[in-house]
Structure to design on (220 residues):
């Protein structure tokens, strides 16, 4: 069970499910030679995927490449089902960052066979999450920026203005198929610049001037 921090306090709910979108940034879809779909590609990670981004990141051994995908993460504060974007806005508790860790070689095999992605995306510890800051700080959801540095080199820079599906509309759309409960987290897709992690890497993830998390990659 993982209970996130919101404004430096433990949130009242632990993380339930994590609802994710694939291909929400055109430049990332292009770097993996994926078409940009009209309907968002959605997938889930279970609660045991959640862990603390500030703790050392454990990557699976002997499962091929493990890619980092740094994404804006949204912490849900109130139940949402068949919600409007206005209802979503009122229900979001916090904003932070998450790593959608992906076993890229396994995902490629699964994609080639037309099989589900869970083995590549939903394993234990596959979603390290930063602390969250209150959503009340956000004036414009599509004007946020975030950065991932690996070993001191910038790998990913995300601007939410580049999203194909804006955050509040996306969560409203998700809630028509998947009820979101307090403690659930939405991962809003990765910008380009994904790449493999190696044991010993140091990572720094930054969300504007609201938060910065340093961590490192370790073996099992
Ligand atoms: Zn992702």
């Amino acid at each position: 069970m993982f209970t996130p921090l919101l404004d430096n306090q433990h949130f009242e709910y632990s993380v339930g499910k994590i609802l994710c979108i694939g291909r929400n940034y055109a430049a990332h879809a292009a770097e993996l030679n994926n078409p940009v779909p009209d309907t968002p590609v959605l997938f889930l990670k279970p609660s045991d995927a959640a862990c603390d981004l500030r703790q050392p990141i454990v990557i699976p051994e002997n499962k091929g490449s493990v890619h980092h995908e740094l994404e804006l993460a949204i912490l849900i504060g109130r139940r949402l089902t068949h919600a409007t974007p206005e209802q979503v806005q009122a229900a979001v508790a916090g904003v932070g960052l998450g790593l959608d860790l992906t076993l890229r070689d396994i995902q490629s095999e699964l994609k080639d066979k037309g099989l589900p992605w869970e083995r590549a995306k939903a394993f234990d510890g596959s979603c390290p999450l930063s602390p969250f800051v209150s959503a009340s700080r956000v004036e414009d959801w599509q004007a946020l920026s975030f950065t991932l540095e690996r070993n001191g080199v910038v790998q990913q820079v995300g601007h939410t203005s580049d999203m194909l599906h804006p955050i509040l509309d996306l969560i409203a759309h998700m809630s028509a198929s998947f009820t979101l409960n307090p403690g659930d987290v939405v991962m809003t897709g990765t910008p380009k610049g994904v790449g493999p992690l190696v044991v010993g890497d140091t990572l720094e993830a930054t969300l504007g001037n609201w938060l910065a998390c340093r961590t490192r990659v370790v073996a099992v």
Remarks:
- The longest strand covers residues 211-219.
